[in-house]
Description:
The structure holds two protein chains of two kinds.
Chain A: E1 7-17, H1 23-32, E2 45-55, E3 58-67, H2 77-81, E4 86-92, H3 96-100, H4 102-112, E5 123-128, H5 141-151, E6 155-158, H6 167-183, H7 196-199
Parallel strand pairs in A: 1-3, 1-4, 4-5, 5-6
Antiparallel strand pairs in A: 2-3
Chain B: H1 2-6, H2 16-33, H3 44-51, H4 57-99, H5 104-117, H6 120-132, H7 139-148, H8 158-172, H9 178-185, H10 194-201, H11 209-230, H12 240-249, H13 256-259, H14 262-278, H15 288-301, H16 319-339, H17 349-365, H18 367-375, H19 380-389, H20 398-408, H21 414-429, H22 431-436
Amino acid sequence: MQKHNQKEHLYKLLVIGDLGVGKTSIIKRYVHQNFSPHYRATIGVDFALKVLNWDAETVVRLQLWDIAGQERFGNMTRVYYREAMGAFIVFDVTRPATFEAVTKWKEDLDSKLVLPNGKPVPTVLLANKCDQGIDVLMNNGIKMDQFCKENGFVGWFETSAKENININEASRCLVKHIIASESDPVQSIEPDIIKPHLNSSKIVSCSACFKS
Amino acid sequence: LVLNSLVKPGSKPPTTPVKLKKVSTFQEFESNTSDAWDLGDDDDELLAIAAENLNTDVVMETAHKVIQNHSKLQEQHKFQEEHLQEEKQEEFAQLTSIAYGDNRLVKSVSEGHTSSSSDNVSENSSMQRSQSLPQTSTPPLVGGMAECTTSVTPVLTEREASRLDKFKQLLAGPNTDLDKLRKLSWSGIPKRVRPIAWKLLSGYLPANVDRRESTLQRKRKEYFAFVEQYYDSRNDENHQDTYRQIHIDIPRMSPEVLRLQPKVTEIFERILFIWAIRHPASGYVQGINDLVTPFFIVFVCEYIEEEEVENFDVSSLPEEVLQNIEADSYWCMSKLLDGIQDNYTFAQPGIQKKVKMLEELVSRIDEQVHRHLDQHEVKYLQFAFRWMNNLLMREVPLRCTIRLWDTYQSEPEGFSHFHLYVCAAFLVRWRKEILEEKDFQ
């Protein structure tokens, strides 16, 4: 299958956020294309692998680390975060407390993990369960853009694991930023600095992502 | 800090000559513990069930050897009972110290050898068993499981019946000899007497028969006084996080059917919330919810005739009976958790320690598996965390957990130390599959 001139990347991605926000469901949807309302609570960490044909020359293997949401496991996260290249932080739009926890997760992540160039890992914020309609937080997209800028997220998406909304898009957005950060080990990637060649041929409809 | 102290170089794996000695000790331990899965039953039917999945002549042969040896042993047993028991305890103590992987283990192993070789009779018997049970044999395990499944044939075999009689005699009193009960329960408790046996083994019920009923009444009253006192506070600001976590987790447990019954959900929420409130050092930790289930299921069995508990409609039981089950489950779970408290306190030091101990143990008893995992960058914490946190309940069917807990409750520190060896046995049992696996991504 693999062409001779193809490059292969392996990226470890973290999926973190409060318990019950749908981390496991998002991963199952993304990797196995299915959904069940009955996934068991994740204990410690679970794993999944997703292979993306990124473009004609590149295959991307995503090693997804599904990390238990309970705070009690918090101290374990240092072990789990090690050598990750990117992260999703997930919250549940129907439970405001899970959104309030987003900054805690981001701080935890940034304090325990930096890229080899010293920068924080690219992180995408996922507002999950957007199919449930109780849309208290999402009404104001501009506010969310602002929130992401202030807290160092490279983008945000309303997602639904149940209805399969925006999960592929969110992943492409994250991978794009990982590739960008990899090819530019010295310079930091500020939201307003865009390397044109990185965005050229990618078809990522990443409306919420302010780097494209 | 805990992590740092765990990975400090002081706890390096030992050198080769020591390792060899340890391997033999683990095998001794393994053989000594192998009868946990033995029903003391040479029923061919059971063997057939046991071999169903493996279906090789080797397995059958091994199983027959085990049974033959076991029957022989049982004859000798009467004379040696006391010796064996002593030896077992001694060896167990040795193994526990081995597992700490520090320098004193070398000493304790050699000491252990001197003392057990002074006892010719018991050493002899332990060797017999050791020969009859190579590491790869599984039939005793599966055979043992058959007993705790909802049994296919409700009619008891002669041996089952006599075993049940032995339990009944012990339980009848006037004072139940707990040491004898432990010894008998170690290789599995018949379903009919399991509820009372568990209550005795966990220390919830007194050995004295006359005091049991009043104890039950008092403890049940005490539990519902807690409910009265605390349960309304579940929506208070300082408790609502705890309650919400429990509330989210209950529908996400197994077994599939029971957990979805509203009545069961209510009961589990109360048990877990009360426990969390009364144990602020740990509070509610994901995984503790699983630990209620075996008690609940076993205690439900006390009141029903049905074989299929998992499909049983709990709400059909009278309210009073349900309350008894709830209170009994609460107290027995509390007793269990008392023994593994540091698994669930901040940063879960008990689990980190046990995962580290498992790693050291496996590095000695199965270097190949250990190296394989290491080469493929599989960290023990990645898979064994859950094994410790949920006591393997996510890894084996509920009926096997229930059977396993017969033994855990018969061991001193069964849920902590003995569990560690079960986890190691798990890895060794699946070594072929593990070694064949080249892609852990």
